[in-house]
Design goal:
single chain, about 280 residues, alpha/beta, Rossmann fold, 2 domains, five-stranded parallel sheet, three-stranded antiparallel sheet, about 50% helix, binds zinc ion
Length: about 280
């Protein structure tokens, strides 16, 4: 499909400039913008959605469930980076250095990984996508706009104090490696705000004595992560807000509470019934 080829060319033209990130970025945006034509109309393809939401909100869970329901790939840039790191691909060495130095992976590398992933999908006959963790910057959003259409941006929201509580409740079993959550969120309705309930995810007896907390799940680190996310994501939200594409969704609780509500908001209840009926 033409969109992927344009994305690939945009990525190729930028990565050839190597260290000159700022110049490469400008050229990439201009290049992609000039090439924006020949898109597939929405009715001839599957959904092309972007999922936004801060770390700990459960964005990956909802994006992945929806992708299964709609039969579109769930593309998480975090996974793309991890997969590339584990591979012997041409970018792996470069990525390892960046990650080891604690730096952010550049737009150019992310775009290049994403276009590789989309191309592979297209070859397998995939249509549409749900993007998770991309675009992270306005520059990335502009590049994406230059090559393909985004139909909708779902912005998942949850009160910060609850996200912090949830993150602090996370545990991992030192033996089997499974994840659990000891936090039980039960906030009563107050000041016109709806109640929020999220049940804990308790471990079986065998794991109970082997639970560990991740080093980066401290109150300070979690709040800092949220602050950085908010600073970075606000311009991206504004960018899509101006296009009238943002659907804000306040999570009413955990998955059992939120999933049906999300389907209702997205007008997908019938889809799920159909899927369940034919499963
Ligand atoms: Zn265990």
């Amino acid at each position: 499909m033409a969109a992927v080829q344009r994305l690939l060319r945009a990525a190729a033209s930028s990565s050839s400039s190597g260290a000159a990130a700022a110049t490469g970025t400008r050229r990439m945006t201009g290049f992609a913008g000039a090439e924006s034509r020949g898109r597939r109309p929405a009715q001839d393809r599957n959904v092309q959605w972007v999922f936004l939401g801060c770390p700990g909100v459960g964005k990956g869970t909802y994006a992945s469930r929806l992708s299964r329901l709609l039969a579109v790939p769930h593309i998480a840039t975090g996974d793309l980076v991890r997969d590339e790191l584990a591979s012997t691909g041409p970018l792996a060495a470069q990525l390892k250095e960046i990650v080891n130095q604690g730096k952010l992976v550049s737009d150019e590398i992310i775009i290049s990984l994403l276009s590789k992933r989309l191309k592979k999908g297209e070859e397998k006959g995939e249509s549409g996508f749900i993007l998770d963790g991309f675009p992270r910057t306005v520059n990335q959003a502009e590049i994406l706009d230059g090559v393909t259409d985004i139909d909708m941006v779902v912005n998942l929201k949850l009160r910060e104090d609850i996200i912090v509580q949830k993150c602090l409740g996370r545990r991992i079993c030192g033996q089997c490696g499974k994840n659990f959550n000891l936090a039980c969120i039960d906030v009563k309705a107050e000041n016109g705000l709806p109640p929020i309930y999220m049940s804990p995810l308790l471990p079986p007896k065998n794991c109970m004595s082997k639970l560990k907390t991740r080093d980066d799940d401290t109150d300070e680190v979690v709040r800092n992560r949220l602050r950085i996310y908010n600073e970075m994501s606000q311009p991206v939200e504004d960018f899509y807000q101006k296009q009238g594409k943002v659907l804000e969704f306040d999570l009413p609780g955990g998955i059992p509470e939120s999933w049906p509500k999300l389907l209702q908001v997205l007008n997908l209840e019938d889809q799920e019934e159909l899927k369940l009926a034919t499963a």
